C-alpha cells in the first residue's frame, strides 16, 4: 500500500465527518443559509491571502526550479482566480472592498493561517509541504465529492 493510501485510510473517520458536515450538506442540497455562505466567502478570501503568502514562501524555499514556478503560480492563482470569484459574491452581498479589509479573521481562521505562516517562516521546506498538503488534498477530494453529487 502506498504511503498516501495509508494516510487517507488513517483519516477516513474524519473525512467522513467532513462530507456530512452541515455546511457541505447545505452547499450540496441548496439549503445552506445565505449568511453562513457569506461568512464563509469572506473568511475564505481572508484565508487565501495568507495561504498565498505561505505558498510564496514555499516557492522561496523550494529546492527545484519547477517547484519554485509551481508554488509561485499557485500563490498568484490563489489571489487572482479566487478574487474574481469572491468579488462576484461580494457584489451580490453588497460588500465593499473596504468592508472586507476591515473584517477580522474568525479565531479558527486566524489560528490556522498563523500556524501556516509560522511553519513557513520557521520550518524547513519539507515541514512547509506537510503543512499545506492537507488543504490541497481535502479541497480536491471534497470538490470531487461535491461534483459527483451535482
What does this structure look like?
This protein has one domain (33-149): Up-down Bundle (Heme Oxygenase, Chain A), CATH 1.20.910.10. The protein has 150 residues and is an all-alpha fold. The mean pLDDT is 92. The radius of gyration is 17 Å and the shape is globular. The chain has helices spanning 3-10, 12-19, 22-29, 34-61, 65-93, 97-102, 107-122, 125-149.
| CATH superfamily label | Heme oxygenase-like
Assign a percent range to the helix content: over 70%
**Terminal-residue CA separation:** 31 Å
* Counted beta strands: 0
What is the general shape? globular
Structural class assignment: mainly alpha
CATH-derived topology: Heme Oxygenase, Chain A
Please tell me the CATH architecture by its name: Up-down Bundle
Number of helices: 8
Rounded average pLDDT: 92
User: Largest sheet, described in full?
Assistant: none
In total, the number of domains comes to: 1
Summarize the helix and strand pattern as letters. Answer: HHHHHHHH
Radius of gyration: 17 Å
Structure summary:
The chain has 150 residues and is mainly α.
Throw out a few tags for this protein.
150 residues, mainly alpha, 8 helices, Heme Oxygenase, Chain A, 0% strand
Q: Mind sketching the topology for me?
A:
Layout: H1 3-10, H2 12-19, H3 22-29, H4 34-61, H5 65-93, H6 97-102, H7 107-122, H8 125-149
Helix pairs in contact: 4-5, 4-7, 4-8, 7-8
